[in-house]
Amino acid sequence: MTRFQPSPRRESPGARWVVVAALVLATLLAFGVRGLLSARVTQSRALALLQAGKPFEALEEADTRLSRDPDDPHLRNVAVQGAKRHVDELLKTRDVAQVADWLEEQLRRRPYLRAALQPRLEQLEAAARAQGAARDGGAGR
């Protein structure tokens, strides 16, 4: 009587590499999706703050992620909108020169805002100079 014996299993080195590559790819995808989801959650929170009339808080929320990854265009847009609205709010209660100083500091701290807000800073600085010249001209009379 012959007994059936299974043949010894032979694994090819190529099959091992395929399995290892698949596991590495799955791990990379998991981290990529996690990062994307985290960015979208941050964006949602920042948008909610912006809609609630809290532009500075929206800027701060977006900055938590943008300070590490400034290339996210959606978050950068929310941060720019937050900064613009905050400038408008500050102009209601503060001197133009103070608002220009605040914006200049933000552009120094948050370079990703520069492209969108540099023209606004230049407008504020020009208005502050004109305001200063008007005060100086009025004081000399």
Quick structural overview:
This protein is 79% helix and 0% strand.
Strand content: under 5%
Largest sheet: none
Morphology call: rod-shaped
What oligomeric state do the depicted chains represent?
single chain
Rg, nearest Å: 28 Å
Helical proportion, percent range: over 70%
Total discrete domains: 1
Order of helices and strands: HHHHH
Structural notes for this entry:
With 141 residues, the protein is an all-alpha fold. It has one domain. The protein is 79% helix and 0% strand. The chain has helices at 13-51, 55-66, 73-93, 96-109, 114-139. Helix 1 runs parallel beside helix 3 (73-93) and helix 4 runs antiparallel to helix 5 (114-139). It is rod-shaped and about 115 Å long. The mean pLDDT is 85.
Main attributes?
141 residues, mainly alpha, 79% helix, rod-shaped
